[in-house]
């Protein structure tokens, strides 16, 4: 076989290969563009149906306090134990303890250390009462608004929200239940990384943003 024929075969093969690659690339690009268009349409549909729903949900979950009453009570020696949304009993117990310690201040011949310890117990309980009252008011407001959200917008949410968002909302509900019904700690209350309410709230919001193509 002459060199001319070999060169012709090689040229033809190269041309065929280039043509095949070009065709495959064109098909791949076309499919990729179609997938992008479909994805954009999905995002558009989700935005149209979920934008206001997600805004409402974000505003509601941000209302929930980051701290449980039992986290606040960590600074109270022999303090009450909170559970089952029973803020009032917890606050009353603290009030009774404050009154008891105030009576102890009237005991004659208290030395400096004894008086200082009693006064510290009183101050811790006064502080805890104030913080728990603030948490109670925020929690009740958030709970009521979340109930309203479930009654008015949960149907749209369930129809259009992505699975990751729905899973994240369930996880957030469990965390809130554990903190304010079961009385569990939120972890390190002031730490945005180790506070489980902040962690799961952040996860839920990020998944909502991703679900409508905002990330």
Provide the descriptors you would attach to this structure in a database record.
7 helices; mainly alpha; single chain; 215 residues
The number of E-state strands comes to 0
Fraction of helical residues: over 70%
Strand content: under 5%
> Which H/E pattern describes the elements?
HHHHHHH
Radius of gyration: 31 Å
Q: What count of helical segments does DSSP give? A: 7
Query: What are the low-pLDDT stretches, counting only 5+ consecutive residues below 50?
Result: none
Mean pLDDT over the full residue set: 88
Q: For the terminal residues, how far apart are their CA atoms?
A: 61 Å
Q: How would you classify the helix and strand content by structural class?
A: mainly alpha
Write the layout of secondary structure elements.
Elements lengths: L2 H59 L7 H4 L14 H18 L7 H41 L1 H7 L2 H18 L15 H16 L4
Notes on the protein architecture:
The protein is an all-alpha fold and 215 residues long. Helices cover 76% and strands 0% of the residues. It contains seven helices and no strands. The radius of gyration is 31 Å and the shape is elongated.
Summarize it.
The chain has 215 residues and is mainly α.
């Amino acid at each position: 076989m002459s060199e001319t024929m070999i060169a012709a075969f090689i040229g033809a093969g190269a041309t065929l290969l280039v043509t095949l690659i070009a065709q495959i690339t064109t098909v791949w690009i076309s499919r990729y563009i179609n997938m992008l268009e479909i994805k954009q349409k999905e995002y558009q549909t989700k935005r149209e149906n979920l934008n206001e729903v997600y805004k409402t949900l974000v505003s509601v979950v941000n209302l929930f306090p980051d701290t449980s009453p039992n986290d606040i009570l960590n600074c109270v020696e022999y303090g009450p134990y909170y559970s089952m949304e029973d803020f009032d009993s917890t606050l009353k117990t603290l009030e009774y303890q404050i009154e008891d310690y105030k009576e102890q201040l009237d005991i004659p011949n208290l030395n400096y250390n004894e008086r200082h310890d009693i006064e510290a117990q009183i101050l811790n309980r006064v502080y805890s009462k104030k913080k728990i009252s603030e948490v109670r008011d925020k929690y009740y407001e958030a709970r009521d608004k979340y109930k309203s959200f479930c009654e008015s917008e949960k149907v749209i949410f369930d129809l259009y929200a992505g699975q990751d968002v729905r899973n994240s909302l369930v996880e957030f509900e469990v965390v809130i239940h554990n903190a304010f019904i079961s009385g569990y700690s939120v972890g390190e209350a002031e730490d945005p990384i180790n506070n489980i309410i902040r962690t799961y709230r952040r996860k839920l919001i990020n998944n909502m943003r991703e679900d409508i193509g905002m990330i």
